[in-house]
Amino acid sequence: MSKTETIAPAQEAWMLLLDLVGSHRATIVATAAEHDLSPMQAFALRRLEPGRPLPMNELADVLGCDASNVTGIVDRLEVRGLVERRADERDRRVRNLAVTAEGAAVREDLLRRMHTPPAEIAALSPTDQRRLRDVLRHALER
Predict the structure, then answer these.
(1) What is d(CA 135, CA 124) in angstroms, rounded to the nearest whole number?
(2) Distances, alpha carbon 82 to alpha carbons 30, 53, 63, 103, in Å
(3) What is the pTM of this model?
(4) In terms of C-beta density within 10 A (0-12 exposed, 13-18 middle, 19 or more buried), how is residue 91 classed?
(5) Residue 50: what are its φ and ψ, rounded to 5°?
(6) What is the pLDDT of residues 27-54, one digit of tens each?
């Protein structure tokens, strides 16, 4: 797009978010690698909360991937001892994923590091940080 073209505010906001996240992709990949995880395994572990088993199909929905891909991701997490599959109490055909104690420890470190705001956000004034948070929260609630 040339500088003379007008960009819709929503499009520009999305482009800026993609640029910001993209500029920190290497940090996310490195953080996952320090735990011998792929980025997708790290994102899966991030979505699995200790004490709250989640059906595999729901994890697939959250990650935006096919159930067959989730099987491979979960297989690798299970081999590492970070999650375990459990039969659902109401429907034994459904497999729930539960975070193990070791998985909870790895998840806690991942979240601590992945949720540390990048310098671009940390440098904003507290007022701007709250505004950004509120706008993003509002967008996600829709």
Answers:
(1) 15
(2) 19, 13, 18, 4
(3) 0.81
(4) exposed
(5) -55, 135
(6) 889 999 999 999 999 999 999 999 999 9
Q: Are strands 54-55 and 83-87 parallel, antiparallel or unpaired?
A: unpaired
Domain 22-116 carries which CATH code?
Answer: 1.10.10.10
What strand order describes the sheet that includes 83-87? 54-55, 95-99, 83-87
DSSP state of 5: S
Domain boundaries along the sequence of the chain: 22-116
Q: Which tokens belong to 74?
A: 């979960």
The region that residue 83 occupies, defined by phi over 0 for left and psi between -120 and 50 for alpha, beta otherwise, is beta
Q: What is the pLDDT of residues 94-140, one digit of tens each?
A: 889 999 999 999 999 999 999 999 999 999 999 999 999 999 999 99
Q: How sure is the predictor about 92, in pLDDT bands with cuts at 50, 70 and 90?
A: confident
Angle at which helix 56-63 crosses helix 39-47, to 10 degrees, equals: 120
* Residues in Cβ contact with 63 at an 8 Å cutoff, skipping those fewer than 6 apart: 40, 43, 44, 47, 69, 70, 73
